[in-house]
Structure formats: C-alpha cells, structure tokens
Amino acid sequence: MNNKNIKAGITVFPGSNCDFDVYHVLTDVFGINTSFIWHKDKINDLSGYNLIIIPGGFSYGDYLRAGALAARSLIMETLKEYAGRGGIILGICNGFQILLEAGLLSGVMLANRSLKFECKNVYLKTLKTDTPFTCAIKKDAVLKMPIAHHDGNYFATSEIINDLNKNNKIIFKYCEFNGSITGDSNPNGSLYNIAGISNEKFNVMGLMPHPERSSEKLLGSEDGGYIFKSIIKYIREK
Amino acid sequence: MSKKAMIKITLKEEVLDPQGKAVLSVLKSSGYNNIKDVRVGKYIELFIDSGTENPRGSLDEEVKEISEKVLSNPLIEEFKIEIK
C-alpha cells in the first residue's frame, strides 16, 4: 500500500517500547510517511502531521501513576494544541493512559482487578463507526486484538460515565468472540467493559489493546489493521 | 533556610484498592485476624529551598498546586500536606 502523502508522527518518551512496532506497521504494512517525535524535540507546531500516535510502553517507568509524568512533559502542550485544532491522535495502551493523565480524555486507569499483568488476545465490540478510527469498520463488528498491560482497569466518576454514554464516546468494549458483553470477557475490571474511548470531537482516541500487534496475518490477527485503514480512509476522504 | 513538605496520598474511600486487599489476605493468612482492612497509599517528600523566589507566592499554595496537578489524580486520590 502506498500512502506516502500521509504523514504520521510517533511520540517517544523514555520507556516507550511499542514505538518501533507502530513504525513498522505504519511504514511496512501501510506505506505511511512516518517519523518519531522525541518528547524533548522543539516542535512548536504539529500541523504538518495528519496523525499522531502515542505508543505503548512504560513511559518514565510508570512512576507516580501510569502515564502521569509523560502527560506533563513539554511535547504534550504542543499535542494539546494539535488536538484542539482537530488533529488526529491515537493513544495505544500507555498512550491511552497518557491521554487520560493529560486530560485529553476523561477518566483514569487503575491496576487490573487481578493485580496481574494481563497479556492475551481479547475481543472488542465496535460501538461507534463514524469516527476517524473506526470509519472502515462495520457497526458491532468484533475485532481480535492483544492486550498487554497492568493498569487497564478503566475508572471514572458517574458524571464522566454519563457523559461518555450520552455523547457516544465509548468506541470499543471488551466482549466475547460472538460480541456479547459479559463480565467474563472483561480482562481487567474496566467499568462497563470499556476498552476504548474518544473525546468530544472524536479526533482523539485511547485504546488499551494493541492494533499494531494485530495488523499482519503472521501475527494471528489482522483486525487491528482496520483501525489504521479507518484513519487512512478518513484522511483521504477529508 | 530549607523546608520540607510531606504529602500523604490515599485512594478515595469509594475506590477499590486491590493492592490493599492482597496485603490484607497475606496478613490474615499470617494470623493477624484482627486486621479488618488495608489501604495502600503513597508518601512523598519535597525538599524546598525557601531562599529561592516562589512563583506562586505562598509555599502552601505552591505545594497544594503540585499535589493537585502532579502528585495525585483527583479522580481517585486525596492528599494531606504537612510542611516543616
């Protein structure tokens, strides 16, 4: 696939460890013009980018709280401006935690209910499809993607949950392979099986599972690729 | 002159603390049957050079701001400050 005219940036913090996985998928699988953005790079303006991805990992060792220190680094101010202008940001795993701590998304991640690092394939139900991240996915489609996290137990006040429900900001929920949303299919204790949410304008999404680890047949699932296909479709049609 | 701020961060009462529950179960299995519950929090010390100009005006205000904005997450945590 040739998407050289699409420009993507991957933010890198000390402790990011899925940055090269995302780079591989964006470049080798989807042919997107991709570069890394070190958190200390003096970039005042990200408007040249069609897409920013905050990858998974353990930024700053997850000290204090997962994502807390990265969320307060310099690059985040620039990212907030970028988001404010409608720029597309996808936070994966630790990237999701960083978006929550930075206030770009609402809520917080607690330690998994099991207190264990959960590393396995899960199924996700697609609840909303008119977003940049899901526009190439059918409503209610079930996607198989891996999770790998210790703090993925989404928690929020009832006001936040009401707002997420009222404004359809819950994009993905953990489910069974047949799409039913059950307690058993919830891998971490997340409120209402929440796996991915977005902001008011639907240009920022946080997702706990790893689409970059499920975009090639060789890895057992290509379902994560639909997230990137959606973003490409959205950028092309915009 | 230097000062020290001591900040205790605890989970709000309504937030489940799986870490505390794990500690509780170990205590119970070690025979400490009178322990009813365990909550795990954080303790942070800030060492402050009070000779340097403080952009927030008062030290109390500054430590409160740091605790609110960085050290704790107000959605799930509360904090208590002591400055010496």
How would you sum up this structure, described in words?
The complex is a heterodimer of chains A (238) and B (84). Chain A has 238 residues and is an alpha/beta fold. Chain A has a single domain, classed as Class I glutamine amidotransferase (GATase) domain (Rossmann fold, 3-Layer(aba) Sandwich), CATH 3.40.50. Chain A is built from five helices and eleven strands. In chain A, helix 2 links the parallel strand 3 and strand 4. The longest helix of chain A is centred in the last third of the chain and has 13 residues. The model of chain A has no long low-confidence stretch (mean pLDDT 96). Chain B has one domain: Mth169, Chain: A (2-Layer Sandwich), CATH 3.30.1280. Chain B is α+β, with helices and mostly antiparallel strands and 84 residues long. The mean pLDDT of chain B is 93. The longest helix of chain B is centred in the C-terminal third of the chain and has 13 residues. Chain B has a three-stranded antiparallel β-sheet, covered by helices on one side.
Termini Cα gap of chain A:
19 Å
- Overall geometry of chain A comes to globular
- CATH hierarchy, class of chain A: Alpha Beta
Q: What oligomeric arrangement do these chains adopt?
A: heterodimer
Q: Beta-strand level of the residues of chain A, as a percent range? A: 25-35%
Q: Uncertain runs of chain A with pLDDT below 50, 5 residues or more?
A: none
User: Low-confidence stretches of chain B at least 5 residues in length (pLDDT < 50)?
Assistant: none
